[in-house]
Amino acid sequence: MAKDRVLSGMRPTGKLHFGHYKGVLTNWLKLQQEYDCYFFVADWHALTTDYADPSGVKENVKEMVLDWLSVGIDPAKSDIFLQSSVPEHAELMVLLSMITPVPWLERNPTYKEQQEELKDKDIHTHGFLGYPVLQTADIIIYKANKVPVGIDQAPHVELSREITRRFNNFYGKVFPEPQTLLAPTSKVLGTDGRKMSKSYNNSVYLTDPPATVEKKLKTMVTDTARQRKTDPGNPDICPFFETFHTLYASEAERAEIREGCTTAAFGCIDCKMRVIPKVLEELEPIQKKRAELEATPGIVESVLKDGTDRARAVAQTTMEEVRRAMGLNFF
What we know:
Elements: E1 5-10, H1 18-34, E2 36-41, H2 43-50, H3 57-71, E3 78-82, H4 88-97, H5 102-106, H6 109-117, H7 126-129, H8 131-140, E4 146-149, H9 154-171, E5 179-182, H10 210-218, H11 239-248, H12 251-262, H13 268-272, H14 276-294, H15 299-326
Parallel strand pairs: 1-2, 2-3, 4-5
């Protein structure tokens, strides 16, 4: 019996940090064992906000894919491809845009949120408003059954389902309606206690040398009310505890840490050193693998070329079916 197909992608922003690793990639590693996976570099989506200066996209693609391969995303198990090298995505987006009501796009919560957050960029563009249509094309051109997302992104998949349903109602059932596959998400906070993000300059990267990782984690914000080692702390408001002890400590270890913190039996550095070696231990094989990949000329290009060729063959077959359904097969 054929496996269900999963599709997911990332915008190329360069080297990846722990937020990407624990929030997305560890889930991809599990999915590639169970599903027919398509993982793509969403370089067109990167242009929805960074269209004015795309000069860094090519290098960002390389760095991101190196990180994917380093953590174990396997091109023998998953199709890894470049969105912009499969022009059928754009063709399907144009056709879907003909049937997608503008109010559906305007009510998208991310559209409103990004307008508030990205005030330094002009995102009042057709591409930004219509990115959910491209996102839908990305998914259904491979007839993906499932799309792994966090709970905050579930409305995006629901909009894709609505667009797919509308297409099928007009032209016959060409596409399966993609299902939301809620991913187990890890809340990863940065060194300043906010969400880990490159734009906040608070990230711990998968490529950071061990000494840099240790320094960043040792100086990561904790319970700001705890001024001295002798003051009792509160793990419930400690970003380090919330992220790294949650990720790396067992339930028994967390209970012990909680007791030591709330009674001031040990200080924040003592607390952090209980988990920092575990972080470094997990990073060691990832960084070793990345060094091997970097020493292999053209490895990223080769992986993307092979994956894109396979993905495009699927996309072309789908578009032949779409054109027939819409009466666009003149020749």
